[in-house]
Amino acid sequence: MPTDNGNGDDHGWWLAVAAWCGSNGDEQKWRKQQSLRSQNSKLQNYTTVHNEENPFLSFISFFNYCLLSAAEAPDPVLDIDGKKLRAGVDYYILPIIRGRGGGLTLASPTGDTCPLSVIQEQLEVKHGLPLIFTPVNPKKDVVRVSTDLNIKFSASTICVESTVWKFEYDEILGQYFIYDGAVEGNPGRETVDNWFKIENFDDKDYKLVFCPTVCKFCKVICKDVGIFVQGGTRRLALSDVPLRIMFKKA
Has residue 81 been placed in a domain? Predict the structure, then answer.
């Protein structure tokens, strides 16, 4: 039980619980956040008694805050073996429906050199190139649904640029396509086109979605990622018909 003898002896308890909660031991930051919570907060009953003269109640409040945060976390994305997707690990994105192409890779369907377009392999047996997922919070190890993330190919190309995904508008075709060459990380207005999400599709499958929340005041398009066929090439594009996918560890 935490105690306070006036010398801050309860600080060790704060550090232990904060470390477990994943807040990097930032007791003061949490206390400040608690003081600003509205009366409709889930922790209302705790914050009304939270003060320096009640260290135990403050400790319990913080512990409950951690439990609530954990309970509200989005579900983890699972691979085909039922294991959680891990940030920084190579995976293949494969289609659920058989007979309609394979994994994902990079190519230049229009003949331009760079940037390269993200396309789907024509043959089902080809897994394409492995990809890495990086959540908006780079400290997070598990990839979760409904969470902003960068997607990049774990490969090098002829282009002197990154393989991080972004979307751009093709004025000739009147279509938004997915390309490489984006900036990784640095969430905000300047990178809003570089963030994607993985969402559930019919409970057991997944789909990719463009609907970034890294810029609170930006007006963005929210659409599924699907396939646009151009001259026989299956290009990834924003679409009303999502590509149903699964993940296989490379």
Answer: no
Q: Based on the fold, state whether residues 113 and 209 are members of the same structural domain.
A: yes
Phi then psi for residue 133, to 5 deg, are -110, 130
Are the beta carbons of 46 and 57 closer than 8 angstroms? Answer: yes
pLDDT digits (tens, 9 = 90+) for 53-66: 555 555 555 555 55
Give strand pairing partners of 106: 118
pLDDT digits (tens, 9 = 90+) for 200-249: 998 789 999 999 999 999 999 999 999 999 989 999 999 999 999 999 99
* Cα 81 versus chain centre, distance: 20
Going by C-alpha positions, the residue among 94, 116, 114, 115 that lies closest to residue 104 is 94
| DSSP assignment string, 152-183 | EESS--SSSS--B-EEEEETTTTEEEEES-PP
- Residue 35 structure tokens: 């003081």
Q: How far apart are the first and last CA of the chain?
A: 47
Q: What does pTM read for this prediction?
A: 0.73
Distances 213 to 96, 178, 187, 217 between C-alpha atoms, Å: 27, 18, 9, 9
Tally of CB atoms within 10 A around 250: 14
Q: Looking at the structure, do residues 188 and 222 belong to the same domain, yes or no?
A: yes
Joined tokens for residue 38 = 């509205």
3 state DSSP class of 171: coil
Which DSSP state fits 172?
T
How many domains does the structure of the chain reveal?
2
Q: Is 92 helix (H, G, I), strand (E, B) or coil?
A: strand
175 in helix, strand or coil?
strand
State whether 63 and 183 are in the same domain. no
